[in-house]
Amino acid sequence: MFTKKFVKDRAKALKIADNLSLTTVVLVGLLCFTTYHAMTNKVILEIIPPHLDEKVSMAYNSVSESYHIKYGLFTAISMGNVTPTSVMTTIEALEYSFTPGLYHRVKATLQEQGAVLKKSGSTLEFKPKTWEYEPETNKTFITGGQTLRPLNGQPTAKTVTYEFIIEVNNYVPFIKSFDLYDGVAHNQRWISENS
Q1: Which among 183, 159, 176 has a CA at the least distance from the CA of 106?
Q2: Which residue ranges run through the membrane (predicted)?
Q3: To 10 degrees, the CA torsion angle through 60, 66, 72, 75?
Q4: What gap in Å lies between CA 80 and CA 140, rounded to an integer?
Q5: Per residue in 145-161, pLDDT tens?
Q6: pTM confidence score
Q7: What integer pLDDT is reported at residue 188 of this predicted model?
């Protein structure tokens, strides 16, 4: 029945065919635009993972200031609170936090530290007091009190700073540079005052 109607009214059929062709061309154009946009757009994620008290933003190759600080705090606390029995667990937990080359150096340092702690029966405790992210240098500073508690003897306390450069690649954060030193953070203000 429809065929007879289309055959009789050829002009109407051609108009419908033209509209369908135009619609197809528009849909193909929209599909190309969407595909291009999906492939070139770097999405920014806003997440609130457990143990974070505020929203953090993560893009393809960057993260927000609060993420730098939280990531630095997690790493400093993990590395700074070590007992002879927890060293291997700490090493395993930090495996994907550092670049591969830096991880092997940190692993060797923590293993040496663990051997010394085991031999003396000591524990190492770190309590962060101040933290800062410096966007100009991309450095995160975690400063706090470090206490060495020997099995028999007086605890020894000092102020130390963990300094990290945290980079993001393909939404994956990792520590590119790491330093631990006595005293306050060696930020730009400290460098200008002490040079």
Answers
A1: 176
A2: 20-39
A3: -80
A4: 16
A5: 999 988 888 999 999 99
A6: 0.73
A7: 92
